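Translate sequence into structure tokens.
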Amino acid sequence: MNKEFEFLNIIEKTLSHPEYIGDDCADLKEEKLTISTDSLIEDVHFSRLYMTPEEIAKKAMIVNISDILASGAKPKYVLISLSGKFDNDFIQNFYKGINDIAQKYKIKIIGGDLTAGEKISISITAIGTYNKEKISSRKNAKEGYIIATTGEFGSSAEGLRCLRENIKDEYFINYHKFPTLYPEISSEIAKKCTKPYAMMDSSDGLIDCLFQISKKSNVRIDIEFDKIQAKTKNKDFILYGGEDYCLVVALDEKDFKKIKGLNKIGHCSKGQGVFLDNKKIEYKGFKHFE
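Result follows.
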């Protein structure tokens, strides 16, 4: 078992109220809020050899906004905890990047924490709001549902390879540093779907999303490789490369036809597991603890 999944199982069994554990966002229905926390660690999720403080900040914001959008809510507020060794210039440029993304998505920074540390660590709590929109859950996929996506897969992994190997490919490098989000499409899904749906962002790769939805919803998922949108030719990057932040959605076929901008790549049926071109595949996602 993936070590992260093992740890999550322990956490769920230890907590008195684990009902909010399992999705990237906790859905507080009474308050009409979704809340998510994510962390980026220097030399794990980013390197200062490749990214400026401003670029690091922008990506940290995008990563967390993506979770809120994938829940179906509208991102509204952010708290930022920053730890590490830095100077005045780093702080100024880092928060310039934070402010640029906050203004772009009309988000307010409402607090956080600032401490010293050996390496830079960024933890962001993002808060989204909703009214009549339906909020997603990995448990919502059903037999007969369509599997659909936004964006292209593998480009972020290709961009990281370019940075590491000093290959000057501006398109892929920018895709890695500044992933594209899809607020209009996620909003349309949340507003127009009449039936419950499952939606995630591909932070840990396309196959990771499909496995998690399959497991939580207890459905078989079949996809066709030729239908996956991609610019890279690297098949492993397309299937398993993370940090593209595309939306991966399982939704009713009638609801799918209402949403513009979704690309159908497969379907759900009775059974379990993930199948690529009719062949069952094993889990091979990003392993945070191995």
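Note: Residues 138-281 form a domain with the Phosphoribosyl-aminoimidazole Synthetase; Chain A, domain 2 fold (CATH 3.90.650.10).
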